[in-house]
Amino acid sequence: MKTRVALVLALSLAATAHAENAAEVWTAKCKSCHGEDGKAHTTLGKKESIVDMSQPAWQKAETDADIREVIADGSSRNSKMKAYKDKLTPAQIDALVGYIRTFQSK
């Protein structure tokens, strides 16, 4: 029983650290263009007509693989969105995908 409790606690702490890491990466690498909430209400977001990632239609249309690909390889629709595959680990990219999914408007 103690082993199970320890395992659950360890997984909970790891998930919390993972979420905090995604928020930190978002703030450092993404927030200046996409905004804190993914709505792109930033100077560059407006100038570049960056999509509002909180919109349910966008969230539904974009698969996790699509989002992961744009983060890793950059965007063919906007040359300002550079590739991050050499700057972020695969785990960080996956965490960002999950973080972006939290933006969906209710």
What does this structure look like?
By secondary structure, this protein is an all-alpha fold. It has a single domain, classed as Cytochrome c-like domain (Cytochrome Bc1 Complex, Chain D, domain 2, Orthogonal Bundle). Helices cover 62% and strands 0% of the residues. It has 5 helices and no strands. Helix 1 crosses helix 5 and helix 4 packs across helix 5. It is globular and about 55 Å long. The protein starts with a helix and ends in a 5-residue tail after the last helix.
What's the gist of this structure?
The chain has helices at residues 2-34, 43-47, 56-61, 64-73, 90-101. With 106 residues, the chain is mostly helical. The protein has a single domain (17-101), classed as Cytochrome c-like domain (Cytochrome Bc1 Complex, Chain D, domain 2, Orthogonal Bundle).
Name some characteristics of this structure:
106 residues; mainly alpha; Cytochrome Bc1 Complex, Chain D, domain 2
SSE layout:
Layout: H1 2-34, H2 43-47, H3 56-61, H4 64-73, H5 90-101
Helix pairs in contact: 1-5, 4-5
**Oligomerization status of the protein chains:** single chain
Strand content: under 5%
**Major pleated sheet:** none
The number of strands is 0
Backbone CA Rg: 16 Å
Output the number of helix runs.
5
Q: Domain count, please report it.
A: 1
Q: What best-fitting shape do the alpha-carbon axes yield?
A: globular
Which architecture per CATH?
Orthogonal Bundle
- The assigned structural class equals mainly alpha
In N-to-C order, the SSE pattern is HHHHH
* The CATH H-level homologous superfamily: Cytochrome c-like domain
CATH-derived topology: Cytochrome Bc1 Complex, Chain D, domain 2
Distance between the termini: 39 Å
CATH class: Mainly Alpha
